[in-house]
Recover the amino acids of this structure.
C-alpha cells in the first residue's frame, strides 16, 4: 500500500526517535550499555488512556511476567490476543509499544496477555521460546486454542513464529492465527536485498541483528532453524498475516518467507519503516483495520469496533 506520508520525513523522524530512545545500538558495547539502562527501567506499564477501558493485572512468574488486559464489558471477549513484544530479544516492553497494543485493542474486541519473556543476555533462546510456549499452552487450555491469536512485533514477531513451529512439531494445538508486525526471521541478516534496504531503514541494521544473535543464541549458527524461523519447515502452520514497510531491513525476511510459504499473507506498505502501526499514521490505522478483519475471519468473531 502507498499512502500520503513522505518517506523522507518519516525516515528523519524515525532516525531521531531511535537515537533518543535507544542510542548506540550499532556496536556491541553500545548495545550492552542500552541493555543496562533498560533493566533499570523495567517493563513499561500500560498508559492511563488504555486503563480507562481495561482492567490491568500483573502476574509474576519465575522466568518472566505477564501483563493481563481485560475488557470491562460484561460479556466475555470472543478473542484473546497473546502479545510478544519487540526489543531485539534483549529489551523489556517499552512505552512506545503500547501504541501497537492500543491500536489492536481499539480495532478488535479482545482481551490480551502481554508476555514478558526471558531476555538476553541473562537468558537465551531456549528459555524465551519455552516460556512463551508455556504461557500459550496454559491460555489455550483455559480458553481454547481457536480463540487465541498470537501477535508480536520485531523480535516478538520472530519469537511468535518460532514458538508456533515448536507447537506444531510437538503436536500441540495451534492458535487460530498469527498477526506479525515487522518480524525478524533470519538472525544471520543474509538476504541479498538487505544492504539496499539498510540504506533506507532509519532504525534497524544488519549489524544490530547479528549482535543480538550473539547474545540470544551464543555459539549457534544464526541460520539454525531453532532461532531463525525462515529456515525451518513452513508446513502445517496457522493462517499468518505479516506487515512490513519497504523502508526496513526486515522487509527482506517477510519477502523470503512468502517465497517459502505462499500461503502467508504479506502486506507491504510503501515508504513505511519498522513497526509503522505504532506511529499513528493513516497507513498504520489502515494496517490495524486489516489485522482486525483477518482476526475476525479466522476466529469466527463478529465483534468489531
Amino acid at each position: 500500500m502507498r499512502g500520503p506520508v513522505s518517506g523522507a520525513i518519516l525516515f528523519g523522524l524515525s532516525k531521531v526517535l531511535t537515537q533518543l530512545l535507544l542510542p548506540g545500538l550499532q556496536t556491541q558495547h553500545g548495545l550492552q550499555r542500552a541493555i543496562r539502562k533498560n533493566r533499570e527501567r523495567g517493563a513499561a506499564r500500560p498508559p492511563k488512556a488504555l486503563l480507562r477501558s481495561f482492567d490491568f493485572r500483573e502476574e509474576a512468574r519465575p522466568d518472566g511476567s505477564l501483563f493481563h488486559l481485560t475488557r470491562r464489558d460484561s460479556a466475555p471477549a470472543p478473542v484473546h490476543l497473546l502479545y510478544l513484544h519487540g526489543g531485539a530479544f534483549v529489551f523489556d516492553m517499552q512505552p512506545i509499544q503500547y501504541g501497537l497494543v492500543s491500536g489492536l485493542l481499539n480495532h478488535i474486541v479482545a482481551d490480551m496477555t502481554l508476555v514478558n519473556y526471558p531476555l538476553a543476555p541473562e537468558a537465551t533462546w531456549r528459555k524465551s521460546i519455552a516460556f512463551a510456549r508455556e504461557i500459550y499452552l496454559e491460555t489455550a487450555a483455559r480458553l481454547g486454542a481457536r480463540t487465541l491469536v498470537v501477535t508480536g512485533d520485531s523480535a516478538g514477531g520472530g519469537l511468535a513464529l518460532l514458538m508456533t513451529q515448536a507447537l506444531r512439531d510437538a503436536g500441540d494445538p495451534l492458535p487460530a492465527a498469527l498477526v506479525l508486525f515487522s518480524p525478524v526471521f533470519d538472525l544471520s541478516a543474509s538476504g541479498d536485498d538487505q544492504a539496499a534496504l539498510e540504506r533506507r531503514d532509519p532504525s534497524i541494521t544488519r549489524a544490530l541483528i547479528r549482535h543480538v544473535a550473539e547474545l540470544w543464541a551464543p555459539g549457534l549458527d544464526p541460520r539454525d532453524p531453532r532461532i531463525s524461523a525462515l529456515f525451518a519447515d513452513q508446513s502445517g502452520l496457522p493462517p499468518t498475516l505479516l506487515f512490513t514497510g519497504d523502508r526496513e531491513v526486515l522487509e527482506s525476511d517477510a519477502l523470503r518467507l512468502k517465497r517459502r510459504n505462499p500461503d502467508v499473507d504479506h502486506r507491504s506498505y510503501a515508504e513505511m519503516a519498522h513497526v509503522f502501526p505504532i506511529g499513528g499514521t493513516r497507513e498504520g490505522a489502515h494496517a490495524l483495520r486489516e489485522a482486525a478483519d483477518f482476526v475476525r475471519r479466522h476466529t469466527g468473531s463478529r465483534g468489531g469496533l
Q: What stands out?
A: The two ends are 23 Å apart (CA to CA).
